[in-house]
Write a structure and sequence with these properties.
alpha+beta; Ribosomal Protein S4 Delta 41, Chain A, domain 1; 3 domains; 5-stranded antiparallel beta sheet; 5 strands; about 45% helix; about 10% strand
Amino acid sequence: MMSHSHSHHTMCRRAGVPLCGSARCPGLKRPYPGGQHGRKSHRQTNYGMQLFEKQKLKFIYGVQERQFRRYYEEAVRNTQTPTGTALLQRLETRLDNIVYRLGYARSIHAARQLVVHGHITVDGHSIDRPSYRVRIGSVIQLTNKAREFRVTRDSLDDERRIPAYLTFDVGAATGALLRVPDDSEIPVDVDTTLVVEYCAHA
């Protein structure tokens, strides 16, 4: 599991947006890097921009380098879809991310905890692997125990837009993946062209 012990919001401040998804993210009030020279603008090299976009994407989905590289290699082998799109689709259909998108948790990290501790079922079966790939038509549901958690209830009470490629039944606390999302629908502000360029030469 990815460690969040170090400066969890550093990447948010560097990007100038709350990549973590938290309404209390320091990046909202201080959209610039920390430190003495944080407010100064620095001209980035093309390599620096490529690296930063890749780091952003890893941070948003909470994946480590080895796993990210595996997803990239899978995307390269997908000859039917542009590599950047295939990479985004693979990340977006991770179980922990779908749990987050459905509103069961307020952050990807909290969603991962629900999965790891066995509070999520897929088609009636308990799945405790955050990286599990959700298939089209699969039904994702909170366990009865998890529905009683205050943090879960609070998250479900939040007004959050559910992406069009998902469906959600509030009363039953169940959701499903309707189709593989197009990259234009995925709510992630990352230049995948730069990500692919970086990975191709790394």
